[in-house]
Amino acid sequence: SKGASLYCIFKYPVSPEGLELNRRTWEEGIPLVLQHGGTLEHHHEIGYYLARYVPAELGTGLEVLRAIKNALDPNHIMNPGKLGL
C-alpha cells in the first residue's frame, strides 16, 4: 500500500480548559493511530512529547536501538533521554 500522511493542527483556547483538550487529544489520539497501523512522524521530529509512545510503535525494535546506542555511547552523553534511549 502507498499509505498517506495526515497532518493536523489543533487550535484550542489559551486557557486551562484548552490545555486539557490538547492533552486529551494527544493522550487519546496517538494510541488509536498506533492501533490502526499508523506511525509517529512529524516534520520537526518526534520530540520529547511523543517520545513516550516510541516503545509502543517500535516494540522489540526499541531494544535493538538501545543496544546500538549503548555500544556507541556507553556514557550516555549523546542526546540523553531522546526517544527513550
Instruction: Please compute the radius of gyration using only Cα atoms.
Output: 16 Å
Based on secondary structure, the structural category is mainly alpha
Figure out the total of helices: 4
Strand content: under 5%
Total strands: 0
The SSE order reads: HHHH
Q: How many domains comprise the coordinates?
A: 1
Give the overall pLDDT as a whole number.
87
Principal-axis shape: globular
Largest sheet: none
Summarize the structure.
With 85 residues, the protein is mainly α.
Q: How would you describe this protein?
A:
With 85 residues, the protein is mostly helical. It has one domain. 49% of the residues lie in helices and 0% in strands. The chain is built from four helices and no strands. The protein is globular, with a radius of gyration of 16 Å.
Question: Which labels suit this protein?
Answer:
85 residues, 0% strand, mainly alpha, 4 helices
Topology:
Blueprint: H1 16-35, H2 47-51, H3 54-58, H4 61-72
